[in-house]
Structures are given as C-alpha cells and as structure tokens.
Q: What sequence folds into this?
C-alpha cells in the first residue's frame, strides 16, 4: 500500500460523497495503491450510514466507527493505527481542502522530508473567530517550539509511515503533529494549499479552543524538554523556592533575635514558610516524576532515542517503529500456537 488517507468524520453526511469522488479522481490518476480511512467519531447524523453505502461503491474505502465522540485527535490516532500505506495523509471531511494538492505534496516529500505540512495562505474563513485566533496561536507555537510554520491548524499533511508509527496523539495534539515530530528529529517543510469556502455543514471550531491550545502547548514543551528528566524543572523550581524561603526566614530570625522585632504581624514570615513548603513539594514532585518517567520508558521498552535508518553490510534499511508491534492489525492476528492448531488440527490429547 503506497498511500493512506485518514479522514476524521463528525456530522459530515453531505460532504462525504463528493469528497470520495474527488479523491477517487485525483488519486486514481497517480497510479498509486491507496486506501481512504474514514473514522466516524460518534456522528449524530447519517454519516456512518452514508459511509456504509459508499463502501460498496468504492473498494478503497475503509470505515472505522468509534463508540462515541472522542474528539478529532483520537479519531485521527485511530486512523493512524489502522493505516497501511507507506505515506499517511490526514485531512478533514468538510471539502475545504483540495485533494488535488496531495500529488504536489508527495513530490516535496520525495525531496527528503518526513512531513510536508499544508499552509492555507488564502484562507476562506471568518476573520474574528477563526483566522485571528489562528494567527496568534501560530506565532505563539512557532516561537515556543522553534518549529516555524505559518499554519499549525491546517489538517492536511503528508507524513511518512515510520514517523506516524512513532508518535502518539492525545488530548488536542493533532494540531501539534509537526512540533511533536520535531522532538524525534523529523525534517519538516511547508507547502501552500488551496483552501475552499465551506459549502456544507457547520464548523466545529471556535475561539473557545484557544485556551486548550495554550494548555496543549505547555504539554508539548514539557515533553520536548523535560519528559525524560522532570527533576530538572521541578527540582530547579523547588530549590529556588526553598532557598528564597530559607533566606527570608533567616532574615526574620536575625531581626527577632538580634533586634527584638516582633514577627507575629509580619506577612513576610508566612511568605517565607510558604516558599519553603512549596520548595519541598516541588522537589518531591520532581523525584516522583523521575520514577514515573523511568517506569514509562522501561516498562514499555521505549528507548530515549529514535533511529532513522540502519546500515548493515553497506545496505541502508529503514528503522522499524516499535509501535508497529502493537497496531490493531497485528493484535488481530492469531498467535503462532493458534495458527498451528488450525493448520494441523487438534493435538493428540484432544483426539483421545
């Protein structure tokens, strides 16, 4: 399988037939072997029924129905887990993205990049509640992560399979895919894409998501800098707080012992004690974080590094992601013992 298109779907029954028709025309002309994975994220309209009907018309269509609405990030991760293509392309189902952009993005991927991100240079959305928050968020994310992109909110991207299997998405992290991928050394570029006005359905986004973006950005920064060494951020903050509290209490102790000043009505005394207590708590959190970080890496066999390629006997080989061993496709395969039993029939004890 050359290409997997991953499309989270939430109440998009009207846009699905024309979207699949466009994808069929565009991808069919490329000569690539492809699949389209539509993940129904608990839609309350007829999206799943429409997809079920379309699956008879389009043999490349794979439909995944989630039990309830888990959010776009979870739906996208479900599609990533099931994707079989060497290249994975996430995109929305609202017809605002043009499938004709996919071939030119694939060409840029062949130039040595791991991710080709879309850039809606001429965005067809309202300014106040859509474009303005996006502009602010893009500048904030670029400045804090060091991955400078014009449009983090653009869903359409072209990503290599080995990278997709290395990253895990939680919360609202789907918009931070380039930033998360950069933590493991991904090579990223940006391509202008055609953004079309919304014709069907309603937008699921608004200015209220700005707070979520800020919180998820904090999580990305922590994962990038201190995931494997939490004591360095919590311990540093704890030592700073504890030393300040100790110096403040020492100053008050000198005033009390040497000069006889009363301390009962001094707010500085409470502040000094508070800083010491906070220091002890932060250092304790850092130590607990160190234990959790080691449990996270060692119990799951997750190394603190990521390999791009292997070179054996002068032959370069692509690295195999560890998560490939736990994808749903692998989990659904029968165990070796089960396969042998089916092939050879019951054992001697069962014959008796």
A:
């Amino acid at each position: 399988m050359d290409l997997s298109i991953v499309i989270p779907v939430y109440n998009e029954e009207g846009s699905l037939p024309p979207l699949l028709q466009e994808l069929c025309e565009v991808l069919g002309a490329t000569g690539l072997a492809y699949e389209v994975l539509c993940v129904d994220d608990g839609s309350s309209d007829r999206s799943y029924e429409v997809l079920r009907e379309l699956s008879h018309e389009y043999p490349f269509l794979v439909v995944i129905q989630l039990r309830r609405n888990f959010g776009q990030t979870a739906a996208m991760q479900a599609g990533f887990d099931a994707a079989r293509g060497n290249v994975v392309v996430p995109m929305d189902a609202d017809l605002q993205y043009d499938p004709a952009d996919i071939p030119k993005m694939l060409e840029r991927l062949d130039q040595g990049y791991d991710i080709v991100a879309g850039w809606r240079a001429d965005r067809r959305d309202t300014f106040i509640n859509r474009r303005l928050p996006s502009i602010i968020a893009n500048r904030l994310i670029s400045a804090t992560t060091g991955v400078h992109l014009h449009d983090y909110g653009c869903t359409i991207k072209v990503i290599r399979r080995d990278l997709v299997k290395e990253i895990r998405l939680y919360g609202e992290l789907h918009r931070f895919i380039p930033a998360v991928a950069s933590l493991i050394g991904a090579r990223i570029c940006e391509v202008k894409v055609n953004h079309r006005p919304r014709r069907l359905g309603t937008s699921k986004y608004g200015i209220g998501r700005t707070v979520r973006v800020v919180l998820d950005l904090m999580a990305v920064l922590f994962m990038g800098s201190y995931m494997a060494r939490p004591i360095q951020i919590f311990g540093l903050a704890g030592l700073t707080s504890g030393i300040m509290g100790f110096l403040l209490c020492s100053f008050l102790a000198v005033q009390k012992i040497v000069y006889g000043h009363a301390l009962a009505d001094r707010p500085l005394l409470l502040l000094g004690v508070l800083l010491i207590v906070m220091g002890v708590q932060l250092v304790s959190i850092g130590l607990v974080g160190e234990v959790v970080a080691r449990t996270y890496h060692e119990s799951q066999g997750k190394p603190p590094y990521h390999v791009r390629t292997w070179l054996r006997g002068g032959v370069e080989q692509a690295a195999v992601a560890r998560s490939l061993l736990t994808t749903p496709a692998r989990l659904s395969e029968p165990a070796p013992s089960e396969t042998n039993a089916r092939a050879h029939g019951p054992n001697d004890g069962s014959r008796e």
Notes: The beta strands are 3-9, 34-40, 61-65, 87-90, 115-119, 157-160, 188-192, 309-312, 315-318. Residues 321-352 have pLDDT under 50 and may be disordered. The domain at 3-225 is CATH 3.90.550.10 (Spore Coat Polysaccharide Biosynthesis Protein SpsA; Chain A).
